[in-house]
Amino acid sequence: MDLLLLLKAAIMGIVEGVTEFLPISSTGHLILASELMNFWTKEKSDLFVVAIQMGAIAAVIYEYWSKLWGAATGLFSGEPKGRHLGVSLILASIPIVLVGLTFGEKVKELLFNDVTVAIGLIIGGIIIWWVEKHPPKVNAEEVENISLKEAIYIGLIQVLSLIPGTSRSGATIIGAMCLGVSRKAATEFSFFLGIPVIIGAGLLDLAKSYHVYQTGEDWTVFFVGLIVSFVSALILIRVLVAYVAKRDFMVFAWYRIVSGLIILLFALTGWKLW
């Protein structure tokens, strides 16, 4: 067993768990971390980057089980709040499912690189900065207050997250805030919206490419990353919910802009960190 490879998988799991729900692009950070650590072969690493996100989303299901169960059963029992949240999540998930199934492979082929990540980080950072400087009027304080029309718009905005560096969390949270959703409700809705998208993408990629993991060691490396991403994401979720109750996302805007510029500089000059 290659202990260094397991350590790299654990680090990738931490990167995923910490970045998945922050507006800074988990996929972008995983791509960069993979390149910096020379993590695995490209084929195995690309599958790892997508599939490991299921560990982070499992943390959402664990943390919000009661509310999510209410949304699922509300679709059939008719409980108003649960039904409304369930329908909202379904409507918001449709656009990215359709676009992802149609263009997902082409996006990976063309845009999974550090230059795209850098540009996505910078543009997203500027948008977050502008929204925080010009906060819209809040009309939906809780996640159950998000209207079906707003849910559809948030779902359309989420399609942008197929571009590495954009950030699914960043697109959905900031997009929801622009529509008048409170920061807390936007963050929770983004958590929930990731469940069908990330689990669907992860399972689809595993079904298509599971053969690239040919040995027990390959699968051990994968599950180490998955478990570590679950634990680190669970911690991050609790910290982030407490954070957004008192603070804005301006620090993430500057982080995106500065890190994007640094990545772009290294990418365009060919410089190496080591």
TrEMBL record:
The chain crosses the membrane at residues 47-65, 85-103, 110-131, 151-177, 189-207, 219-241, 253-271. It is found in: Cell membrane. Belongs to the UppP family. Pfam families: BacA. Catalyzes the dephosphorylation of undecaprenyl diphosphate (UPP). Confers resistance to bacitracin. GO terms for cellular component: plasma membrane. Its EC number is 3.6.1.27. It is a multi-pass membrane protein. It comes from Acinetobacter gerneri DSM 14967 = CIP 107464 = MTCC 9824. HAMAP family: Undec_diphosphatase. Keywords: Antibiotic resistance, Cell inner membrane, Cell membrane, Cell shape, Cell wall biogenesis/degradation, Hydrolase, Membrane, Peptidoglycan synthesis, Transmembrane, Transmembrane helix. Signal peptide: none annotated. This is Undecaprenyl-diphosphatase.
